[in-house]
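Target protein
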Amino acid sequence: MNRVDKFASKAKEYDTLQRRLLTAKAIANKIRVNINLRKDMHIVDFGSGTGLLLESLAKDIAKVTAIDISPSMTNILREKSIPCKLDIKEIDLTKEDLDLKVDGIVSSMTIHHIRDVQALFKKFHKMLKSGGFIAIADLDSEDGSFHSVDTGVEHFGFDRKEFIDLAKEAGFTNIKIEDATTISKPHKEFNVFLLTASKE
């Protein structure tokens, strides 16, 4: 792939930061509260990175397709022992299509890296089986200080109402948004929400 890997310098140490581990576990727990995960489910983890979120969910499902554009991050994931079937797709889903019909799509702290969120949500809707779900965790609107280096940030978090509207316009129903966790950095605390919704 002829793509700059913006996470290459961070990948090896990515899982060593305690707050990332705690954030992934908190989001996974919030997903479990809102979604009835089943052992026969096939889900997509969009922006899977090193697999922190899917590690926490894997024991509750049958298969996860991990999608990420960073070779350095997916290489870390490949070395892990994941307690369900794992299929890694190193693609840019905003530019490529996957011929998949899945039970659910989860994503943690990735959507603020996506320029056209509306188009992505429509693609998510198309990829889901009837009755399928999305569970998307991301930042509340912030002042731009969350990221200290350029890793392709397109949005400084999101206004919750606008985020809900994007899901509605993509065709999702049963939309709910709530607090997921707080990320504490030395200079500030940042709120993270979880949006859940379904496809009829």
